[in-house]
Design goal:
Elements: H1 23-32, E1 37-41, E2 44-47, H2 48-64, E3 72-76, H3 81-89, E4 96-99, H4 106-116, E5 118-124, H5 128-137, E6 143-147, E7 161-162, H6 163-167, E8 185-190, E9 200-204, H7 205-218, E10 226-229, H8 236-239, H9 241-247, E11 251-254, H10 260-270, E12 274-276, H11 279-286, E13 300-305, H12 311-319, E14 322-330, E15 335-339, H13 351-358, E16 363-364, E17 370-374, E18 390-395, E19 402-403, H14 407-413, E20 419-427, E21 433-438, E22 443-445, E23 448-450, H15 452-461, E24 465-475, E25 479-488, H16 496-506, E26 515-518, H17 531-539
Parallel strand pairs: 1-11, 3-4, 3-5, 5-6, 6-7, 10-11, 10-12, 12-13, 13-14, 25-26
Antiparallel strand pairs: 1-2, 8-9, 9-19, 14-15, 15-16, 17-18, 18-20, 20-21, 22-23, 24-25
Helix pairs in contact: 1-2, 2-3, 4-5, 7-9, 11-12, 12-13
Length: about 550
C-alpha cells in the first residue's frame, strides 16, 4: 500500500535538507559583515573577516596533524581570542571541542583528558604549572599548543609549539567540515561533580544551533549586539553565546580577569549591550568601591542563571541601569532553557514585587519542547499552586545526547523519557516554575521541608550581608536544621544572634538558621557556591 500524497516523490535531498549546525553562522557573518569588529581584547580589535580566517587556520592546522571526526581537542584558557576561535575552529574539522574549567586540579584534568581521549590540548600559559602536573599523571601522548598571551607575564611553556605559530602552519585553503548528521557530536562538557569523577556531557549540532536561536529570541536581541564576556566560555560553551552573538553579527568583548573595574570600564568604553553571569558577578558590581565604578547612559541587559538572585540584588542592579533577565538551565541542556518572560502589566507593580517576579526561573524557551514539575518517581505533575514541591523535568531538542561512556548514568537521566534535572521547584498558576533547591540541598527539619534558597533570600535582605549560603546541619532533635554561612560587607560587624534574630523576624521561625558561621564562601569558577564543602563543615560544628 502506497503512502499518502505528502509522502510520495517528496524526498529529502541536498537542495531541501541540510543538517543544522551553528558552524554555518560564522561564514555568513564574515561574508556579510567582513569589516565589522568581531573580537575585542585589550587594545586588539579583529574584524569578522580576520576572525573567520583565524578559525579556518586553526582547523587547517589541526587537520594537518590528523585531527578529524571522532577526535577530541581540549582547550584550557580564560576568555581570550583563542577560546572563541576554538569554539568554531575545532568543530570545523569534524572533531569535538572540550573546553576545560580553568579552576580544576591536576588529577581531575588528567581524568578528563584520558576519558575524552584528547589528541590536542591548547593551553594558556597561565595554567602551565597545573598542566605540567597533569602530564606527569596521564599515560597518553597529547600534542600541547601554548597560547602565550602578550598581555600577561606568564611565559612558561608546556608544549612544543606556540598558538600563533600553530595556526600559521597550515596547508593553504581549508573548507570547513560540516556534519553529515545534525545529531553528530559538537562539544563535550564535564559536569562539576561533587563526588566521584565528573560526567562528560555530549552536545550535538542541532541542539547548539537551536539554543543559539533561543537565546536571541528570549532576550529580544537585535543585530550587532556588543557582548561582554563575564561568563566563562568553558561553561556550557558560554551558554551557546559564542554562536548566538556571531549569528547576529555582533562583537565579542573578551576579559581575561572578571573583576569589577575592568567590567565597568568595558561597559562604559565599548557601550556593552549584553552580558551574562552568575549572581556572584552581580554582587561584585553592586558592592564595588567608588574607584572601580563608572556610569553610562546606554541600555544594558544582563542575563543571570541558576538559583534565584535575591530580590534585593536585582533591585540594586536596576538602579544601576542594568536590566536583569533571569534564566535557568544545566550543563545537560546547553545552558539556559527557561526564562522569566516579562509582562508589561508587571511594570506597574512596586519595584520590590517586580524583583521577586524576576527571580522566578519562568517558562520554557521556544526551543525546549517540554517542561514540568512532577513527582520524581511517578512523574505525576504537581498542582500548579506555587507551594507543592517536585522535581523539574525537561525534554526536547536542546537536551544532551547523553553522558560519554556512561550508559547507566544516561539511562537514569532519561528515565521515563524525560530528563531528570535533580532540581526541586514549584509551578505557579501562571505556568512559571520557581526553583526551591537541589534535591540534595533541601533541608528536612522535624518532617518539614525547608528551602535553602528561601532562607538565603532573607539573609540577603540584611543590609550587612554580602554573600550567604545555607546548608543542613545534623540535629539530634530535628534531624536537620538550617546552618548559614555568611560573608559580611567590608567594615560591617554582626553576631550570630543578630543574624538569627533578623531571620526570625522575616520568616517562619522553624525556617530560620540555628547556626551562623562568618566566612568567605568557597566557589566554583562559574561563581556557584560549593555547598558540599559547607555541608562537610556544618557536620563538624
Amino acid at each position: 500500500m502506497s503512502g499518502h500524497p505528502f509522502e510520495t516523490d517528496l524526498d529529502k535531498n541536498a537542495a531541501n535538507y541540510i543538517p543544522l549546525t551553528p558552524l554555518s553562522f560564522i561564514g555568513r557573518c564574515a561574508r556579510t559583515f567582513p569589516t565589522r569588529p568581531s573580537v575585542i581584547y585589550v587594545d586588539k580589535v579583529f574584524t569578522w573577516e580576520e576572525t573567520y580566517q583565524r578559525c579556518l587556520n586553526l582547523a587547517s592546522a589541526l587537520k594537518k596533524r590528523g585531527i578529524g571526526a571522532g577526535d577530541t581537542v581540549s582547550i584550557m584558557a580564560p576568555n581570550v581570542p583563542p577560546s572563541f576561535e576554538a569554539t568554531f575552529g575545532i568543530p570545523m574539522t569534524g572533531a569535538v571541542i572540550n573546553a576545560l574549567n580553568t579552576r580544576l586540579d591536576a588529577p581531575t584534568i588528567a581524568f578528563i583528558l584520558e576519558h575524552a581521549e584528547t589528541k590536542v590540548l591548547i593551553v594558556d600559559t597561565e595554567y602551565s604549572s597545573v598542566i605540567s602536573e597533569v602530564l606527569k599523571i596521564i599515560n597518553t601522548e597529547i600534542l600541547i599548543v601554548d597560547y602565550n598571551d602578550p598581555n600577561t607575564t606568564n611565559q612558561k611553556l608546556s608544549g612544543s609549539i606556540e598558538y600563533e605559530d600553530f595556526i600559521n602552519d597550515t596547508d593553504g585553503d581549508f573548507e570547513p567540515v560540516m556534519p553529515n548528521d545534525e545529531w553528530d557530536a559538537l562539544a563535550l562538557n564535564y559536569t562539576s561533580g561533587t563526588t566521584g569523577n565528573p560526567k562528560g556531557v555530549v552536545y550535538h549540532h542541532r541542539g547548539a544551533y537551536l539554543n543559539s536561536i533561543g537565546n536571541s529570541l528570549v532576550w529580544g536581541m537585535k543585530k550587532h549586539p556588543i557582548y561582554l564576556w563575564t561568563l566563562p566560555m568553558f561553561h556550557c560553551n558560554g551558554w551557546c553565546f559564542p554562536w548566538t552573538i556571531t549569528m547576529l553579527g555582533g562583537t565579542h568583548v573578551c576579559l581575561r580577569k572578571i573583576e569589577a573595574k575592568p567590567i565597568y570600564d568595558a561597559i562604559a568604553d565599548h557601550k556593552i549591550s549584553h552580558m551574562c553571569g552568575a549572581p556572584v558577578v552581580m554582587n561584585m558590581l553592586i558592592n564595588a568601591d567608588s574607584n572601580s565604578t563608572r556610569t553610562w547612559e546606554h541600555e544594558l541587559a544582563m542575563m543571570t542563571a541558576g538559583a534565584a538572585p535575591p530580590a534585593a540584588v536585582i533591585e540594586k542592579m536596576e538602579h544601576q541601569k542594568i536590566n536583569v533577565t533571569h534564566v535557568y538551565g544545566l550543563t545537560e541542556v546547553y545552558g539556559p532553557v527557561t526564562v522569566c518572560e516579562w509582562h508589561d502589566e508587571w511594570n506597574e507593580l512596586p519595584k520590590s514585587q517586580q524583583a521577586s517576579l524576576k527571580a522566578r526561573q519562568g517558562v520554557r524557551y521556544p526551543v525546549l519542547e517540554g517542561l514540568m514539575v512532577a513527582d520524581p518517581e511517578t512523574l505525576e505533575k504537581v498542582p500548579a499552586d506555587g507551594k507543592t514541591i517536585g522535581e523539574v523535568f525537561m525534554r526536547g531538542n536542546v537536551v544532551m545526547k547523553g553522558y560519554l561512556k556512561n550508559p547507566n548514568a544516561t539511562k537514569e537521566a532519561f528515565k521515563g523519557d524525560w530528563f531528570h534535572t535533580g532540581d526541586l521547584g514549584v509551578i505557579h498558576d501562571t505556568g512559571y516554575i520557581e526553583l526551591k533547591d537541589r534535591s540534595k540541598d533541601i533541608i528536612i527539619s522535624g518532617g518539614e521541608n525547608i528551602s535553602t534558597i528561601e532562607v538565603e533570600d532573607v539573609l540577603f535582605k540584611h543590609p550587612a550581608v554580602l554573600e550567604a549560603a545555607v546548608v543542613a546541619k545534623p540535629s539530634e532533635k530535628w534531624g536537620e536544621t538550617p546552618c548559614a554561612f555568611v560573608c559580611l560587607k567590608p567594615d560591617e560587624i554582626e553576631t550570630e544572634e543578630s543574624i538569627i534574630a533578623f531571620c526570625r523576624q522575616n520568616m517562619a521561625h522553624y525556617k530560620a538558621p540555628t547556626s551562623v558561621v562568618f566566612t568567605e564562601l568557597p566557589k566554583t569558577s562559574t561563581g556557584k557556591i560549593q555547598k558540599f564543602i559547607l555541608r562537610d563543615q556544618a557536620k563538624s560544628l
